[in-house]
Protein 1
Amino acid sequence: EIVMTQSPATLSVSPGEGATLSCRAGQSVGTNLAWYQQKPGQAPRLLIYHASARATAIPGRFSGSGSGTEFTLTISSLQSEDFAVYYCQQYNNWPYTFGQGTKLEIK
Amino acid sequence: EVQMVESGGGLVQRGGSLRLSCTASGFTFSNYWMSWVRQAPGKGLEWLANIKKDGSEKYYVDSVKGRFTISRDNAKNSLYLQMNSLRVEDTAVYYCARDTSGTDPPGAYWGQGTLVTVSS
């Protein structure tokens, strides 16, 4: 199975600032990479798919980039509702696999 | 509006069985692969199984292969997960998720989850 590694594990950022989250795949997944946001007690919410396409109703401050094995989720001008756990996931090969998550916390 | 509602979770003893259900609405169920994903308490996400639109293909992650069975009833817009030989480490919130249609990505919609607790 493809191992997905996210960094950092925790990121402390002040509201209004930007954040960059990284995800590395153990082998190439092309652009079959998604990013999810999860808040406590809620199901994950799809933010980005195909590495850079924003899902329905996702604000423009969320953007994704990368291909192959290196991917980035960038959040510009953090809002209070953006502080959550973020997961990357590859769906290029079965089983689909997730990274371990990056917790984005308020500084 | 796309909705998926899971049911069937609860407390079960180690070695026992449980059947989860997921009822979908707001989209053409038979046009989509469907999946089950779980999350152990305080842990990350694990994509467990998926099933083709017509049920003819099923795939499982190694940790549940041979113990869990995914199935669907397109006439009832329903997805199921039969879980046998349950282990303490199967304790988790179980989500159904809409998988791909071939063009849509997997994971665009999720249910609210149902908690399965396996006691020793």
Note: The mean pLDDT of chain A is 97.
Protein 2
Amino acid sequence: SYVLTQPPSVSVAPGETARITCGGNNIGSFGVQWYQQKPGRAPTLVIYYDNDRPSGIPERFSGSNSGNTATLTISRVEAGDEANYFCQLWDTSSGQFYVFGTGTEVTVL
Amino acid sequence: QVQLQESGPRLVKTSETLSLTCAVSGDSAGGNYFWSWIRQPPGKGLEWIGYVSNGGSTNYNPSLKSRATVSVDTSTRQVSLILRSVTPTDTAVYFCARDAGRDFFDYWGQGTLVTVSS
């Protein structure tokens, strides 16, 4: 099965930049999505196809994907960005289809 | 605005069958959509269970394929999940979500917590 590994936690001060990684074998060959999940809420899509933003998502959210690592970057972090973030890709070869990362809790100091 | 709303029993006994329904509203009934069930054990990550298309085709996570069935009734705009022979490890928040044929989920339900206990 295909495994996506994320750091359990990232801490960042307000106004600084948070970078959340998602590691997987040759992940650069896949389109990667990122979801934000606040406590008690459903996930919300913040990045799709590596670096596209749905309408309503601030430009502060951006993504990149190459080699074995995809990265979500949150610039000028705000208190409201505190949440869990999950990466996800579509992989039919493993039979899992929708594969989620392990999740990263972002704490705003 | 597309809305998804899960419903079903909140408590299921060990070895019995979990049954949930997701009511869909606000989108095009004839769209090329794939409806998934995803679960999240308390304090843990997301696990995809399976999907059904509006045309009725299905696929499942290999780890749950033997116990799960996902179906759709396009006339009533409802998506269903059946999970058989449950154990306490099936305790989770269960979400339904939509993929508009783009390999990601653009709309999610609010989720419903199902507890499996003897």
Note: The mean pLDDT of chain A is 96.
